Amino acid sequence: MATTIIDSQKPFSLDHYHVSEEFGFILRAPLAELPPYYQPWMDIAQHVTELIYSHTLRSHILKMPLLNTQSLESHRELRLAHLALSVMTMGYVWQEGEHDTVKMLPRNLAIPYCEVSQRLGLPPILTHADAVLANWKKRDPQGLFDMENLELLVTLPGGDNVRGFFMVTLLVELAAVPAIKSIPVVINGVQCGDAETVTRALEESSQAMQGMTDALKLMHVYVKPEVFYGIMRIYLSGWKDNSSMPAGLVYEGVQAEPMEYSGGSAAQSSLLHCFDELLGVKHEAKSGAFLTLMRNYMPPSHKRLIQDISLQPSLRGFVQQQACEPLTAAFQLCVTKLLALRSYHINVVSRFITVPAARARQLRKQGNSSQEETVSRAPTALEETGTGGSGIMSFLKTVRDSTRDVSLPLDNRDMQKSPNGSQLQNTQHATQPKHLQSNTL
């Protein structure tokens, strides 16, 4: 994919990346219905859960007409079509669990799915861009953008926990908007040598990162770990690095050879990729390769934004060169807040994956094959592995440690006050707080 040509004479702007000043990477006002011609898709997509539980989803999809995708004209129509075809595909593949998967996606689903995917620049599998960014509506259009007023357009097995999982993730995206809006301010400030402007923008970014962590804490309120692990996870899983589908999946009528795609992952969100590039976080080879791969699961314009941020002059280098106390403190506070967010995410993953996985293994060792405990239903192929295919805890800890490496601890002997002579504020936040060293519930 071509990278935007950077004109250093022009201010950096978000205008070319389909990023909203109000919603960030979230799709503004997603459509809830497609044109009538595509009603056969929506009739199934809006009832995927019931059809899975009745073991009839596959038969319904096999009877579905092969529809022409040319009548899908707008970006929002394409996004809803991709979402609908995605949940049908996840349901079709995993309807009977990990031991009765399919080797082929039927042509009446595979052909339009791949056509829509190609037009959007997304892979033919359920992504973060589908399930979170384009899968919401307000119950009251004039009401608040909060948990009580948000609902899903389509869902998967797991009941209200699915809504909780996707909507909490959506609120994390929303909380990040001020930080996304600050990125051009930081970049342009560095270009102009304006330390005060960069300092203020970094302080706003830090507040937004704290808001992201606060939003993520709602996961414990709205999602039960045993339901996420035992019921939901399989429907977010892909057919790459998954022993349940070692050969991948044939998309009938598209190509004869199987294709492999990773399942949903928080690494498919553009947010932390943007922050990493801005702050200069460099990940070790294996983790970096996985994160780079996940960029192929983002809308192309969002992937392009990440790439273009990486081409800008180094913010960290600018901070070191300026040797300005408030600027260094603001940079370090951003690093600290990003560390806190990643540490809390590890906390969440431990509660929702590691602990239930241990319980599932314990039940198997005891010879308890009953389905009385929800965690018993979980696929063994996913134990200790993210739905995106990564070895999840080691990956997350490595990424967190790489974030810590960009820290710039304050050294008051070498620092100057800001150009207007103002005193440093919030210096107590500039070094890593103790609660990050052992982040437990």
Describe this structure in words.
By secondary structure, the protein is mainly α. Helices cover 49% and strands 2% of the residues. The protein is built from 17 helices and four strands. A two-stranded parallel ribbon has the order 1-4. The protein has a two-stranded antiparallel sheet with strand order 2-3. Helix 11 packs across helix 16. The longest helix has 41 residues. The protein is globular. The chain starts with 38 loop residues before the first helix and ends in a 37-residue tail after the last helix.
Give a concise summary.
The protein has 441 residues and is an all-alpha fold.
Task: Record the SSE blueprint.
Elements: H1 39-45, H2 48-53, H3 57-62, H4 75-94, E1 104-105, H5 107-120, H6 128-131, E2 137-138, E3 150-151, H7 160-175, H8 177-192, H9 195-216, H10 219-222, H11 225-232, E4 250-251, H12 270-279, H13 285-294, H14 300-310, H15 315-322, H16 325-365, H17 392-404
Parallel strand pairs: 1-4
Antiparallel strand pairs: 2-3
Helix pairs in contact: 1-4, 4-5, 7-9, 8-9, 9-16, 11-16, 12-14, 16-17
